[in-house]
Write a structure and sequence with these properties.
329 residues, 2 domains, 4-stranded mixed β-sheet, 12% helix
């Protein structure tokens, strides 16, 4: 008898037979590719509680924690997660528990291979990870729509597109050319506005409020200066993420000495907003993962519920949307 194939999780602590993964696929006992996609919130009895033991009728739990649920009829995969970050730069929307909570809004107590298996059970086709050599090639795969649900402080259920919790990064430095500081301009010490005489540019950090804009415009009538201030205001306003996601499926690392395979998404890269070759789900646009100053996105703090709020993530495949790789401009 041929021995069963194994791969090791990235933690190196457990050997997981491939047969277990395929077993998860058969738990659904149905073919879901032809079913109708979900377009509405889940029924009220489907709770987002990440610690809840209930599995409503029609859903199949794919793990012992009951945090990965297959909704065959609704053709979606559900993840019970928690809010772990409300402010700061982002590399992902959701990570695995105890991995990358310092740069992810949500965390889920599950194994990445379980989420992968659930998407395969829905008929989703695995794509290819982002590539940087010989030239940039964006991640490809079946597009997926992602929604998040939670119950607010007024006991009202909220359901929004996941992009609404993510803003383009505004906590960064901005610069505008300015040949010289206007004679009538005295920059107050308490402001974040600065003039760099060496580089001949006006600089600003972070989001500019309407009040700050108006106060700065009142300091000088110089056209180049006022143009710069108006530019800082426009460029520093939060704007929700527009990019979509695709099911990449992560990748394997093969130990050259032992031949053992490591499923790299177990490092935590579940739903990414910065490009990682290890991503299970990645954005379809060029999005740097190199250094905080280069990250494209940050948490949209005003829209994110409190820390530890239970959030239900819905991953809904879009089988009709064409997939086109996007190259950087």
């Amino acid at each position: 008898m041929k021995p069963m194939n194994f791969f090791l999780m990235k933690t190196g602590k457990h050997s997981i037979p491939l047969g277990i993964i395929f077993g998860l696929l058969f738990q659904s006992l149905v073919t879901v590719r032809g079913s109708e996609p979900a377009d509405s919130p889940l029924p009220a009895e489907v709770k987002s509680d990440a610690n809840g033991d209930d599995v409503p009728p029609g859903l199949v739990s794919l793990n012992k924690q009951k945090t990965v649920l297959l909704d065959a009829k609704g053709k979606r995969l559900l993840l019970k997660s928690k809010i772990v970050l409300r402010e700061g730069m982002l590399e992902m929307l959701c990570c695995l528990k105890q991995t990358k909570e310092h740069e992810s809004i949500l965390s889920v107590d599950a194994k990445a291979y379980t989420i992968h298996a659930g998407l395969l059970a829905l008929g989703v086709e695995q794509g290819t990870p982002v590539r940087y050599e010989p030239e940039f090639q964006a991640a490809t795969g079946t597009p997926v729509d992602i929604y998040v649900q939670w119950v607010d402080k007024n006991k009202k259920r909220q359901r929004v597109r996941a992009q609404e919790l993510i803003s383009r990064a505004v906590h960064r430095f901005y610069a505008e050319p300015l040949e010289r500081q206007p004679d009538d301009l005295t920059i107050p010490r308490e402001t974040k506005l600065r003039y760099d005489a060496k580089n001949k540019e006006l600089t600003w950090y972070g989001q500019m409020t309407v009040e700050e804009r108006d106060d700065l415009l009142a300091l000088s009538r110089d056209k180049a200066y006022t143009k710069g201030v108006r530019s800082f205001y426009e460029r520093s306003q939060p704007e929700e993420m527009k990019a979509g996601w695709v099911f990449v499926g992560s990748s394997f690392f093969v130990d050259p000495k032992t031949g053992e395979k490591f499923y790299q998404a177990e490092g935590g890269d579940v739903i990414c907003v910065a490009n990682f070759p290890t991503a299970l789900i990645d954005v379809t646009i060029p999005s740097s993962a190199s250094g905080n100053e280069n990250l494209l996105y940050e948490a949209y703090t005003e829209r994110i519920p409190p820390i530890d709020t239970d959030v239900l993530i819905e991953i809904i495949p879009d089988f009709d949307q064409p997939v086109e790789a996007v190259k950087p401009k």
